[in-house]
Amino acid sequence: MPPPDWLGDVSAGVDAWTRRASAPPAPPPEDAAVRVPEADPESVARKILLDQLTGQARSRKELGDKLAAKNVPDDVAARLLDRFEEVGLVDDEAFARSWIASRQPGKGLAKRALAQELRRKGVDDEVAREALDEIDPAAEEAAARALVRKKLRSLSRVDDATATRRLVGMLARKGYGSGISFAVVRDELAAAGRDEPEGPGL
């Protein structure tokens, strides 16, 4: 075995040793078995949609907004939403009916307030109107009466004019028109043994 080039030359030996010590270690070979593939946008979007639809219906706009917030490409989002509509997982008509069924008796909301909520959810006005037309007027009035009776219990210390103003205002915020509001308030005040207030100019 021939001697190394630097033998007998201290400076050359130091240089050779320094180069070996300072050289970075070679990286280990890449293991293809542990390489993580990039997530497929369509698979990601499909999981987002299924997660969002678990437990409750959502409008197409709500789902589209969620996909956009997760940076799903528009073309992928549109294609998947179309497919979900085809199989009935996304259905704005069914969503509108479900929303009304939960909000009308539960919150006592009238058609006008429900229409505003559905519009904010991105439901088409015509689709919303068809669903709202299925509300029984008697059920809407019953919901208004229930609201007034509940609120009236907290108004025992105020005069009838003030009670009427507050009750009608509450019904207005729930989407009821002045006609049905005053009629319901007048009836419920009378049923509670309180005097009928003067006309709707209050």
From TrEMBL:
The keyword Cell division does not apply. Residues 91-132 form the RecX second three-helical domain. InterPro entries: RecX_HTH_1st, RecX_HTH_2nd, RecX_HTH_3rd, Regulatory_RecX, WH-like_DNA-bd_sf. Residues 19-39 are annotated as: Disordered. Keywords: Cytoplasm. It holds the Pfam family RecX_HTH3. Residues 45-83 form the RecX first three-helical domain. Its main location: cytoplasm. Residues 140-184 form the RecX third three-helical domain. It is found in: Cytoplasm. It comes from the Bacteria. Modulates RecA activity. Belongs to the RecX family. This is Regulatory protein RecX. It comes from Nocardioides aquiterrae. The gene is recX.
